[in-house]
């Protein structure tokens, strides 16, 4: 039995044993921290590596890969690197004209429209995808939205960042579950961010009814949700050969920051010691998708082409993942909430 699967089983046993105890959260977290594989390994790559360097030498002929938001930024570099290795890549986005202008020159790449804020769009996309591709070897949940200036909602009625960054991808992954299982071994890579540090999961106030809307905090909450989704998805998927990884790509200038003012951009530029190129920003995604070093590993948060260390919840900004984003009990609660919000029940 793979050691990571044994860890997950033991966590579940601990949870069952102490489910009536007031110390449930403490027991779960302490046990998880003690046995976690959330710690750096001797990776063959680093923060300066590019997606192309990681994909080099891999033969992905016969593999089907889906990249949301694959028409620009980090997503585009991810698509380009994986397609260059021979994979059949489907990229999604909302603007078909913009996507076709960029993607048409890439071999083995096709485009399908998808709006993650619209559950009908997600269902329509999934139906069309499954009709064309019975197997899905890599699902890369890359698309996202960052800090709109006012409170906006998706078509489910939830705050837009939570709706797009988490709920839309939760629904998409659930709808594509048959193709992931058919692949005979698949990976799901979820783009999170160091911004997860800004907020723990607060399911009781997603609409900011109890405090003024804070777009930065809402973004952080959505990125925490991305990590928690990965934790529970890996627990559910690993018996079927489906592993999940959360990724912080690093600081990269892309179109996702279109809502930032010039003053905010200047402040951000001063705060960041090192910016990555878009090719470097896509590297950790591609590493999680392809690395043999991650065989029998999953449910981890990665950065700079490595598994990130766990840092205290009150640690200053910097590397690492906060423990609250890895808590399996919170991950389970988010999963139940997300099933209810999207109508998706995992088989």
From TrEMBL:
InterPro entries: NAD(P)-bd_dom_sf, SDR_fam. One of its GO terms (molecular function) is oxidoreductase activity. Pfam families: adh_short. Keywords: Oxidoreductase. Belongs to the short-chain dehydrogenases/reductases (SDR) family. This is NAD(P)-dependent dehydrogenase (Short-subunit alcohol dehydrogenase family). It comes from Chitinophaga polysaccharea.
């Amino acid at each position: 039995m793979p050691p990571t699967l044994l860890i997950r089983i033991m966590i579940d046993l601990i949870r069952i044993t102490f489910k009536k105890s007031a110390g449930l959260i403490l027991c779960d977290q302490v046990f998880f921290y003690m046995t976690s594989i959330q710690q750096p390994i001797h990776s063959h790559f680093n923060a300066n590596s590019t997606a192309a360097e990681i994909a080099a030498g891999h033969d992905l002929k016969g593999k089907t890969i889906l990249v949301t938001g694959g028409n620009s930024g980090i997503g585009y570099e991810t698509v380009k690197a994986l397609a260059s290795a021979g994979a059949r890549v489907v990229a999604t986005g909302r603007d078909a004209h913009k996507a076709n202008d960029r993607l048409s020159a890439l071999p083995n790449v096709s485009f399908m429209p998808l709006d993650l804020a619209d559950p009908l769009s997600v269902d329509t996309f999934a139906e069309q995808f499954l009709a064309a591709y019975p197997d899905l070897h890599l699902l890369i949940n890359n698309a996202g939205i960052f800090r709109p200036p006012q409170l906006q909602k998706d078509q489910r009625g939830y705050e837009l960042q939570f709706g797009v960054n988490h709920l839309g991808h939760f629904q998409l992954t659930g709808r594509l579950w048959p193709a992931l299982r058919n692949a005979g071994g698949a990976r799901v890579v979820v783009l999170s961010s160091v911004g997860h540090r800004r907020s723990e999961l607060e399911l009781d106030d997603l609409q900011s009814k109890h405090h003024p809307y804070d777009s930065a905090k809402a973004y952080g909450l959505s990125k925490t949700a991305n990590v928690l989704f990965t934790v529970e998805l890996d627990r559910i998927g690993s018996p079927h050969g489906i592993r999940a990884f959360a990724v912080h790509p690093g600081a990269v200038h892309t179109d996702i920051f279109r809502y930032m003012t010039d003053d905010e951009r200047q402040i951000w530029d001063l705060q960041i010691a090192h910016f990555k190129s878009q090719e470097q920003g896509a590297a950790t995604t591609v590493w999680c998708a392809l690395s043999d070093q991650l065989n029998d590993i999953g449910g981890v948060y990665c950065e700079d082409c490595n598994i990130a260390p766990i840092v205290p919840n009150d640690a200053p900004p910097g590397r690492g993942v906060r423990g609250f984003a890895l808590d399996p009990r919170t991950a389970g609660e988010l999963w139940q909430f997300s099933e209810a919000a999207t109508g998706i029940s995992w088989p």
